[in-house]
Amino acid sequence: MKLTAIYARFFRSLNYDYVRLSNPNYSPDPWDGTPSGAQYPFVRLRLEDQITTVVGGNESGKSQVLAAVRAALTGEGYERSDFCRYSPFFSVDKTLIRPEFGAEFRDLSDADIEAIEEATGETGLTGTDRVAIFRMNTTPQLRLYAHRGDQWTKPRHVKKSSLLNDAGLPAPFNIDADIPLPDSVPLEFLATGKPAAAVGRSVLRSIWDAFTNNSTWFDSKDSVVSQASEISTSFKTSTSIDEKELKKYHLAADLLLKVAGLDRSQFVELQNAVRTKNGYANSIVDTINSELSKALNFPHWWTQDSQFELFVALFEYDLVFMIRDRTGRSYGFDERSDGLKYFLSYFVQYLAHEAPSDGRPEILLMDEPDRFLSSSGQQDLLRVFADFADPEDEARAPVQVLYVTHSPFLIDKNHAERIRVLEKGEHDEGTRIVASVAQNHYEPLRSAFGSFVGETAFIGTCNLMLEGPSDQILLAGISSWLGRQNAPDRERLDLNRITLVPAGGVSQVPYLIYLARGRDIEQPAVIALLDGDKAGNEARSTIRKGGARRKPLIADDLVLQLSDAELDGVTTDNPHGRVAIEDLIPIDIAIAAASSYCAEFVPDIDIPKLELSAKTVFGEGSGGELPTAGAKGTIDALEQMIRKLTVQEKFELNKIGFARSVLAELSSDATREQDRQTLAKNFRQLFEALGVRQRKAVRAESVERVSSRINRARDRFMREHVSTATREHVLLLIEEISGQLDNSEEAEDVRAEMRSWRPRFHLDQDPREAIEDIEDLHTALRSLAYLGKRKASTEPTIPAPSLGKVPATLAIVSESETFVESPAGSQSSTDVEHVSEGESA
């Protein structure tokens, strides 16, 4: 049977599902009841069959979700003190004293049902398609619900919980994210498994230095006696080992004994050989390294260096872990970053993991593995998770994976369905799981992550939409370079406050803006930078009329085109003007960058021998017309000329490689200072123009949330009208709330909901009369603040139209508002339609 959902209630910040409870159409599940008779829905986390990614900001409850999974499956890891402190039952109800948990399963086999029947002592479960196991405060404390047809049965008492293991109750385990691979490990520990402190190079060095610098201490018995205190201090070595260091040693032992398949007897033999037979000892070490290399196949997993190699070296009575990279040089662990050691730790734990002997399925739980890893290391770790869930080795059993993170680099952009976002509410609301993250156009991700610079959209304070990743590299790199040149803040990008989002092509920019802005309650600030060519003009036209009811996707003054008059002060060598961002780069720097690129990737092309210049690259027109070279920008003109002069028609000047080479040329001694100053002046103007748009976009989106405004008015009203309120009081409240609303779609929904109150509470009758059902009014007020959240959570979706190479996680739009491109693929304003519900394109 497959684990599909975890439930928790009154557990730390996982109080209850307050959004679901606020829904007027809320229908309780059979386990939602409490001893008082009140219904409180559990917080539910739905799990994917393979990998589930939980993201959230600090203190959003990520770690508590992992604890809830373990508690639901094992009944362990929680106690009375974990009861939610702001639960209405905290220290009030003597029956509800501990948090409550549940787990839901599907894909039941006949053997699973048979085991469940034996565990409950009841029969008649044939035809069950789902079961839910709950750990409650009231009897039966361990209960099972069976689902058949379209309803759940009454709870059955699980009398023999151990038999649930036979039904496939998953066994949770974790990869320890806090224990890195050690710098070295004592031979004594590898040979015997007994704790032994490493001597280490620094200790041996200090002992030798003490001996050589104070040899007179040992001239006679008397000198030894007289210097006893100093000798004791200098030669004293620690024999104790703390728990964390011991865990590191166990990890090293797992690497050598389990992963590499070595035997302890080999280390016993090495211990003996190191004393008298150095050659033999080194041969044993060679064997260890040979087996280690075969077992790890590390270059397959560590994409940052295909020639990376992990090996051990013998240093007296310790084995020291060493690294050899693509430079061919060797390094100790103390000379490399912590990220590498931690990735190796995760990788070793993955390889050394052993499945339960009873054949039970497993679920891997991992808490914030991004803490020590670089963005590339996190991407490599995703591949380890993928192999856990779907092993390449047929001998390994698949493992369900659940990890929590606040890093966008640990989100698989190809699998939007895996994302679960946590949101911490106000007051007694606690943590909730945001439903339908993709439908909400990824706004919850932006709220969860906060400011950050990277390749994932909708998570920064402001998002700059770019045509491609080369633009991202140039803008980020040159902005950092300008910072080192002490450029003013207004004339460079603050990369902590703006996210550079490459769209994968100019035609994708409007669609990406649409997805970023979406229909969610909150919309991230978005600006755009477009080329000054025809495609850029068409994209801008689409942005102007591509939204709902032909409204702009974003305001036109938040879009900057390189051809805008605002950038007329920019100097360019391209006679066609500012066509692409590379036209802001002086031609001599561009030629030098092309030379560096070819030297690394196309060594048979010698750029200096071609004697390129602005004249040869852009050519000369006849009859006064502009030369055709440069019509698509500097990089295209360079590419065409190199093809022509080398007679290599298939030559391509990769934009990303070129961008990186430009950044390298800025630090080259061969680059003319005048060219550096020209480039700096050009990009400072560009960044200043972008900064104006960034600040305007952020100001426009920094308004208070509508729900917060409603909550303030609601709370005051409910304090003043606890048991009674007249119709006039309600009309005044409606007037107060309406006066604080803006023109957003959420505000319109709130107005429509309040209009429905007139017949519901008879507001058009005598205003002096009291409302007949004050509790119903209070329920309506509570529901009003969450109206937008409920609508966003339940909004249906349809597949996005085919728009070429759109990031997979972004190709999800709502059914009620769809961005449509014409079959021909052009995106002029006449090609974009808005499809309302019930209409067709």
TrEMBL record:
Ranges of compositional bias, category Polar residues: 817-830
Gene3D superfamilies named among the record's database cross-references: P-loop containing nucleotide triphosphate hydrolases
Gene Ontology MF terms: ATP binding; ATP hydrolysis activity
CDD domains in the record: ABC_ATPase
Biased composition (Basic and acidic residues): 831-841
Entries under InterPro entries matching the protein: ATPase_AAA_core, Bact_Antivir_Def_Nuclease, P-loop_NTPase
Disordered as annotated region, ranges: 817-841
Domain ATPase AAA-type core: 51-412
Descriptive protein name: Putative ATPase
